[in-house]
């Protein structure tokens, strides 16, 4: 089944119509491992364009990220993409990770600066003999390995950016360094995504920008995730969710409905696809996929 791993995600998105992809994270224990591979098995039937595997803070899950992407490449029909960050790594260590990924049959990497060691919103600390910016990491990967490189994009601007226009310039720098596509953090409003695309295009960034999707299944956890990115849940979404906070099943159903409406709006507006943050579960993603009006 290894043929899928040889394909370039950038080329697939540019040439193959709409993209539909999933994101997983390395589990902490055997129970989490079972849940992950059950979800991967269930989602494989949807024939995603690619799947991505995240990378722990400071490279904490480096070996498991490599192991999971290796297994996806070798044992499934899906195309894997490994995340890689600047945090906690020298360039020599980054080169070793790239060597391991290449040997594992992985040909696509998402290059990220990563959160500061002190957590989102804290001061950035460069690792000695390491790299400072995602654009530096993109350039390093292109110089070191024969890989397709994607990057992150931020519909409302990165929390550390001086402005959304400055944030767009950062995306342009990643493009100039050799990135071929971008995946956004979770989109909360379709208008934010389209504003990002417009700003990027104005600077000459013409690669595909895929919106990230995460349905609200639990109000507290969603608020925490949004807070970490320096944003707020939109008022109109809160207006639909808050009345249901004492009814978990109804809240979950409304969260799925909101995410499905958002996905349709994004696709109908011209988004090149959808990237689902699955939290290693498949049910919500499958429900949204089945409820879409717009064909993926």
* Strand residue content: 5-15%
CATH top level label: Alpha Beta
Query: Main β-sheet, in a few words?
Result: 8 strands, parallel, barrel
Under CATH, the topology can be stated as TIM Barrel
Number of helices: 11
By CATH, the architecture is named Alpha-Beta Barrel
Low-pLDDT parts are: none
Element pattern in H and E = HEHEHEHEHEHEHEHHHEH
The count of DSSP E runs of length 2 or more, i.e. the number of strands, is: 8
Q: Mean pLDDT, as a whole number?
A: 91
Estimate percent helicity. Answer: 40-55%
Strand order of the largest sheet: 1-2-3-4-5-6-7-8
Q: Evaluate the radius of gyration.
A: 18 Å
From the spread of the alpha carbons, the general shape counts as globular
Report the end-to-end length measured between terminal Cα atoms: 24 Å
Q: Which structural class do the helices and strands define?
A: alpha/beta
Number of structural domains: 1
Question: Mind sketching the topology for me?
Answer:
Elements: H1 9-15, E1 19-24, H2 30-44, E2 50-53, H3 62-75, E3 80-85, H4 91-103, E4 108-112, H5 134-144, E5 148-153, H6 164-177, E6 181-186, H7 190-202, E7 209-213, H8 219-228, H9 235-241, H10 248-268, E8 273-277, H11 283-291
Parallel strand pairs: 1-2, 1-8, 2-3, 3-4, 4-5, 5-6, 6-7, 7-8
